[in-house]
Amino acid sequence: MGLAWQQGPLGTGAIGRFLVPVELPERMLFAEPLRRRMRVRFGDSWIADSEDVVLLHEPGRYPVAYFPLADVVADVLQAEKRTTRHKDLGETSWFTVTAGEASKARAAWQHTALPDYASDLKGRVAFAWRAMDAFYEEDERIVGHAADAYHRIDIRQTSRHLIVRDGDRVVADSSRPLVLFESGFAPRWYVPREDVDESALTPVEGQTFCPYKGLCSYYADRAAWSYEDAWTEVRRISGMVSFEPDKLEVELDGKRLRLEPGQSVVSHGVDRDLTVEELSG
């Protein structure tokens, strides 16, 4: 997804290649100014607020936001004795984050022995996404992970014939699906509810969220999913259903679809205190 995730150009499963005369390093990290105001909330307090965030893109990981130490509230970070070593960025120091009555160990980190080529991250700290209460860009909450500026979604109407089967049972049959193209992923096909056998959609517990599409609900052992109230940018897929081709037989114009290698997703459970109303607000 985006620049360094899944099959993006810096990802571990990139489907394209750089047309250069020399072989590139196996791993390439990319850091850039976010150029957006980002804030972090923890323990009912704003603990970081910056217009000078640097976003780090690392192969196989979601983007990570690094804040200048000067833009973090004093006394929020308490150094721990434990250190680790990053394969590219060297020694990493860890912090317990404390605000009011709230405290979380190993909730922030800083690379303290950066090589010269990574000086963009000097004097900066990153917060563990799930350890914090919330991250915001301006006054809007960002869920899941930092948004990737290279991530793009395009949705197209099509008249191609899509059939979904579970054994001998036809679960969906449509000649008017929408196809969603999302950076780093193979196309996903969304079917109108009217073309789906609703009795096959047994809801399962647990929802996940996407910074780009919103709150996702699942059906039938997670073989199908739907964004019941997709965010404005992708409103066209609201309420429609998509099907996982490795769990059901999905056929497009007579050709069976297969899950492409490297297309597995790291699911994110619902944020602390995150509600459907907050997502859609």
Task: Describe this entry's structure for a reader.
Helices cover 2% and strands 41% of the residues. By secondary structure, the protein is an all-beta fold. The strands form four sheets. It has a seven-stranded antiparallel sheet with strand order 1-4-5-9-8-7-6, with no helix packed on it. Strand 15 (178-182) and strand 16 (188-191) form a beta hairpin. The longest helix has 5 residues, at 276-280. It starts with 29 loop residues before the first strand and ends with a helix. The mean pLDDT is 90.
Features:
seven-stranded antiparallel sheet; 281 residues; mainly beta; 22 strands
Question: How many beta-strand runs?
Answer: 22
Bin the helical content. Answer: under 10%
What would the average pLDDT be, to the nearest integer? 90
Overall geometry comes to globular
- Which sequence of SSEs, written as H and E, runs from N to C? EEEEEEEEEEEEEEEEEEEEEEH
Secondary-structure blueprint:
Blueprint: E1 30-33, E2 38-42, E3 45-50, E4 54-57, E5 64-68, E6 77-86, E7 90-99, E8 102-111, E9 124-127, E10 134-137, E11 140-142, E12 153-157, E13 162-166, E14 169-174, E15 178-182, E16 188-191, E17 203-210, E18 214-219, E19 224-226, E20 241-243, E21 249-252, E22 255-256, H1 276-280
Antiparallel strand pairs: 1-4, 2-3, 2-10, 4-5, 5-9, 6-7, 7-8, 8-9, 10-11, 12-15, 13-14, 13-21, 15-16, 16-20, 17-18, 18-19, 19-20, 21-22
